[in-house]
Specification:
Structural class: alpha/beta
Order of helices and strands: EEEHEHEHEHEHHEHEHEHHHH
CATH superfamily: Aldolase class I
Helix content: 40-55%
Largest sheet: 8 strands, parallel
CATH class: Alpha Beta
Radius of gyration: 18 Å
CATH architecture: Alpha-Beta Barrel
CATH topology: TIM Barrel
């Protein structure tokens, strides 16, 4: 089962290209601080603006750098089933441990279309698949009943659930059973989701505070709910600041403030407004990430 504090890692750029050296450094930072897995080429990794060559290369680098110390869950989703198949097949061939596949965006498929999309991918590539359900970005929602159908396919093993509805998360847990990994797709919901039976988080905040996120999940799993709750409350202002503008604008800005990457995004994402950047800076100072 895929569980714990898993980092949806940013893709660092320098002068318009992927900064491979910084990507390797970020991966080491994550593993040294207790992260339970790495997700390259997700939303946080700016996958929509990576070329196919860059997308594949980022996954290759991640697999090479991680060296099987933690699972690599490669983002390979697309709104074209054929494109998703090509990306997923490559991730499998280079040694990724699983694939994270966002629901087809813009197309707005029916529930049957969603089922057939994932069914075809699961049958074509023998890699564990985690569905990524994020209706606010994609325009479609995988309903719990559809997720239950998908959970019956042997290599569809979990969901990154970012519907924002604890009720929907609970229904998925009930319908899909204890062996289906239900991971939060929203940092704020990590603690509440684990309280109702979820298994962890695919996290943005872990980019800047990996040890704290890992400690919160570990404390909960060890039965120390008071410690987990305390970390959740302490982390909430940082979570709020890291989503003050569209992800991954704030988290890449935060990593640049920490001196870990260049402050570089790809259009149509653009630099933060100065007022929001100051709010982010204050939150990071208060949290102890920068002085």
């Amino acid at each position: 089962m895929f569980k714990g504090a898993i980092c949806a890692i940013v893709t660092p750029f320098k002068n318009g290209s992927v900064d491979e050296e910084k990507l390797r450094d970020l991966i080491e930072f994550q593993i040294e601080n207790g992260t339970d897995g790495i997700v390259p080429c997700g939303t946080t990794g700016e996958s929509p603006t990576l070329s196919y060559e860059e997308h594949n290369r980022v996954i290759e680098i991640t697999v090479e750098a991680v060296r099987k110390r933690v699972p690599v869950i490669a983002g390979t989703g697309s709104n074209s089933t054929q494109e998703a198949l090509e990306l997923t097949r490559h991730a499998y061939e280079v040694g990724a441990d699983a694939a994270l596949m966002v629901t087809p965006y813009y197309n707005r498929p029916t529930q049957e279309g969603l089922y057939r999309h994932y069914q075809k991918l699961a049958e074509a590539v023998p890699i564990p698949i985690i569905v990524y359900n994020v209706p606010s970005r994609t325009g479609c929602n995988v309903l719990p009943e559809t997720m239950a159908r998908l959970a019956k396919i042997s290599n569809i093993v979990g969901v990154k659930e970012a519907s924002g509805s604890l009720k929907q998360m609970q229904e998925i847990i009930t319908l899909c059973g204890p062996n289906f990994s239900v991971l939060s797709g929203d940092d704020y919901f990590t603690f509440p989701l684990m309280c109702i039976g979820g298994h962890g988080i695919i996290s943005v905040v872990s980019n800047v505070a990996p040890r704290d996120m890992a400690e919160m999940v570990d404390a909960f799993e060890a039965g120390n709910l008071a410690k987990a709750r305390d970390i959740h409350y302490r982390m909430t202002p940082l979570v709020d600041a890291l989503f003050i503008e569209t992800n991954p604008i704030p988290v890449k800005t935060a990593l640049a403030m920490m001196g870990m990457i260049e402050e570089e995004l790809r259009l149509p994402l653009c630099p933060m407004s100065e007022s929001n950047k100051e709010k982010l800076r204050r939150a990071m100072v208060n949290y102890g990430l920068i002085k």
